[in-house]
Amino acid sequence: MGDTLVFQGKAWVFGDNLDADWQICSLETLAELRAGGVPLTAEELGKVCLQPVDPEFGRKVNLGDFIVAGANAGASVACLDGDPEDPHLIGAASLALKGAGIAAVLCESSNMTFLRNSVHHGLPVVECRALRGRVRQGDELRVDLARGAIQNLTTGESFRFSPYPDFLLDMIRVAGLYPQLKNASGSSGT
Amino acid sequence: MGMTIAEKILAAHAGRNEVKPGEYIWCKVDATGGFGLRQLEALGIDEVWNPDRVYMVEDHQAPPPTIEVANQVKEMRRLAKKYKIKNFFEFGRHGILHQLFAENGMFAPGELVAMGDSHSTSGGVFNVCSTNSAMDAVLILVFGELWFRVPESVKVVLNGRLPEWCVGKDVILKVAAELGTDFGLYKSVEYTGPVARQMTLAQRWTISNMGVEVGAKFAIFECDEKTEEFLRGRLDRAYTPVFADPDAQYETVHQFDLSNLTPMVALPGDPGNGRPVPEVKDMHIKVDQAFLGSCTNARLEDLEVAARIMKGRTVHPDVRMLVSPASQAVYRDALKAGWLEVLADAGCVVEHSTCGPCYGGHLGVLGDGEVCISSSNRNFPGRMGSPLAQVLLASPATVAASAIAGEVADPRDYL
Questions:
Q1: pLDDT class for A86, splitting at 50, 70, 90?
Q2: In the predicted model, what is the mean pLDDT of residues B217-226?
Q3: Is domain A6-187 annotated with CATH 3.20.19.10?
């Protein structure tokens, strides 16, 4: 079996300032789901992920695909990244991307709250400035998280990024902070 | 090699002699908020690392406007008891968290604080690395530690001498207008220079508060006698102020000469839309609401300057002005000093301490097409209510003058 930190999939390309609160997981959509009594799970959020930008996205995306964004991915003018009415729903944008099956977000730079929430939800956000203009919609990509390598299999180009430290790679391996803490508190025997 | 203030504080909390920008490190955290206790309980963890260093209050929806919120606050009270959180603040002893927690000893120079709220950069005024935390609040609650990617540092040197009736709010609106609202993106912004020393602590506080409006991870000031005066009697521990080394490496150094600054107002849409008030005055922008409140500008001297301007005058017939002190302590001080009486006599709605109007939550949201001049920090569409409303940001003095004039006005015409 392959390493759990190596991903291969198709690129979905977006521009700069892809917004967490209004585009990735819009607050209006969250309010509609809540009013409709839909449980706000990753799976349900995945279906409406990026709806304001591409209403069909949740249906078209395949498990293991990548978001390729520009500068300031996960931007958040409102600084919410979640639902202010629901303290459980922190990092709603990251949850929605995960629910949609996204393997990783590749970008030039990112909003740090979005990056932290994503990693803690087990979704890698990779910053790599050299990517600008080098990936087209639908290109096949291969990402090795531990080695810090991106290959565009469609064009044959390769890119390097500085990999996460081991403790964050471990967190991504077990799918996030909460599972990791659950394992830790469960195995302590207390 | 020399280090910046943030690098020194982070290194000390990581148990290291030196850290460099870009490094991932684990740091001991000195204090945090209670955001995350529900997740902790869901994970089956029954203790926090240090209950005395966790601070909790419901400020955004204070007191609860709906049954749903009332039930959320009930949950907060239960969790505070369960986890033995001493610093839980009930309504009537409450305030906006950045003000309230500081009044109650959360911050001491050289410390590291992360808590849930984007304006947590406010604590930087105390020579503290203070920042927002989200999901990772759980890590602090369990271990008293958090990981950081050491930010690059940027220095902003405030030169000259601030003219009379210009304050910290005018300075930060000028800085954001000149450098853009992303100049601090994931950076530690360190403010220094003659004007930094000249300003009162409350004025510096506004600038640290709006650190997040320029993207910053931290927005730090040096510690001086004004910092010490505020902290006196509030702390149960000793502290050592942290200064940057003379040879510290800053990614960028920005110089400002503020001797000719005028009052500033940020036009709707972005805090970086700052323009001099004398210019905007000629545009005759009518206002429907004036708001003096929020964690940005609702401290005693903010209420005082508004009261001095409004004494013997009245709010324009077509305007309503809302006043909400930054905390219950500020409310009481302003009450005893007579400022609230002056403001009420002028026709202001004097509210208790709440975040309500600033984020369009309750106690005075804007309707379609309305215009508000506000002493708060954000003016994107929908921030204070209707997405069709418009928000201008300004100092308390400019807000008060505009409330009287019924349009954006220069406070210097009223003093």
A1: low
A2: 98
A3: yes
Structure tokens at A168: 């964050």
Does residue B136 belong to the interface with chain A, where contact is any CB pair within 8 Å? Answer: yes
Chain B nearest C-alpha distance from A29 (Å): 16
Confidence band (pLDDT; 50, 70, 90) for A135? very high
Identify the CATH homologous superfamily for domain B264-413: Aconitase, domain 3 (3.30.499.10)
How far apart CA A125 and CA A128 sit, in angstroms, is 10
Q: What is the DSSP letter of B51?
A: G
Dig out the tokens for A155 from the structure. Answer: 């064009």
Q: Is the pLDDT of residue A26 over 90?
A: no
**Model pLDDT for residues B274-311, shown as the tens digit of each residue:** 999 999 999 999 999 999 999 999 999 999 999 999 99
Cα(B376)–Cα(B396) distance, integer angstroms: 9
φ and ψ of B356, to 5 deg? -35, -70
**The pair of three-digit structure tokens given for residue A69, joined into one six-digit string:** 């964004």
CATH architecture assignment, domain B5-256: 2-Layer Sandwich (3.30)
On chain A, the residues whose CB falls within 8 A of the CB of B135 are 90-91, 116-117, 120-121, 177
Which residues in chain B are contacts of A109 at CB distance < 8 A?
Answer: 185
Query: What are the residue ranges of helices labelled H in B255-408?
Result: 277-281, 300-310, 328-337, 339-345, 396-405
Return the bridge partners of A8, or none: A142
Whether the complex's predicted ipTM surpasses the cut of 0.95: no
Does B135 sit within 8 Å of A116, measured CB to CB? yes
Position A190 confidence tier, pLDDT thresholds 50, 70, 90: very low
Spell out which residues of chain B touch residue A127, defining contact as CB-CB under 8 Å.
none
